[in-house]
Amino acid sequence: RPGTDAEKSVALFAANGMDDGLDPLALEQDLRTAIEAGDQLQLHYQPIVDLVSGRLVGFESLMRWHHPTMGLVSPLRFIPLAEESKLIIPIGLFALDQACQQVNRWRRFLPDAAGMFINVNVSGVQMQEADFVERVAEILAHRQTPADALKLEITESVVLDDVDGMLSILSRLKAMGLRLAIDDFGTGYSSLSYLHQFRFDAVKIDQSFVRAMRQRPENGLIIRMIAELSRGLGCEVIAEGVETANDVIRLAQLGCMYGQGYHFGRPRDPMTIEKLLLPACEETETVV
Ligand code: C2E
Ligand code: MG
Ligand code: MG
Ligand code: MG
């Protein structure tokens, strides 16, 4: 068993399942406590960039859990746990509320940010709650956030679980003015026709395709095909896992409009983002 906190968090990052020796029930209880305590969960933000102009267009929000003794716990570990225990429902609402406040602030304070958006990951478990759409509407109204400032990221596998139910939820969200992105595209089982049927606004090409392209340029053909079809259906195309300057050039050539990845920046806490983008931000804050 790992000893120090750092070793433990490394172990958590390495773990994919429940075989890491940590008691999932204890972790679930800790997560419950974290939700009540309120200060252990925090959204970090990763830039989404126009691949041709290099312009920052928005951010994806990614949840971070600062566990009091184990340090940072990966979302790959705690999101599945949260889904099983339904704790994803309060966590997901918290994420939406935080993202609304953040995008309000950034649309006001960051340079050239009037049209900026924040992507929020939404779990299928959360979407299947009977009052999901109403709760989202309440949060937007409470924070006075325009619906076009958020984009909901939905993973492909989730969409397929219940096609009719999902269609009705997604069309109600769209009627509110929210935009929808299909996440990790290409890793699930759906056909491209789902893109059209569900009226997604954006397709996020999974980072495994970008990695494959880096290894063998011919693999870029898959990306080109997804990008072309997506665009033909009126969807924006965002490549995930952009790690090198060469990725940027190739992905733009293959028809991807936007990119996200370590090349542009890792997910960071909001204070760090503000320091990077607007050194005078603290001053601005005291004025307002
Ligand atoms: P995702 O939504 O597909 O998010 C992208 C993941 O790729 C993030 O991992 C991000 O840190 C990572 N990433 C970004 N750029 C690169 C890159 O250039 N190279 C590589 N190798 N990785 C990159 P993260 O933050 O660990 O999140 C993992 C997953 O956890 C997310 O995948 C999402 O499915 C889930 N998740 C995170 N936050 C939330 C949340 O607030 N709600 C829900 N329901 N799920 C969340
Ligand atoms: Mg995502
Ligand atoms: Mg993704
Ligand atoms: Mg993913």
TrEMBL record:
<feature type="domain" description="EAL">
    <location>
        <begin position="24"/>
        <end position="281"/>
    </location>
</feature>
<protein>
    <recommendedName>
        <fullName>Diguanylate cyclase</fullName>
    </recommendedName>
</protein>
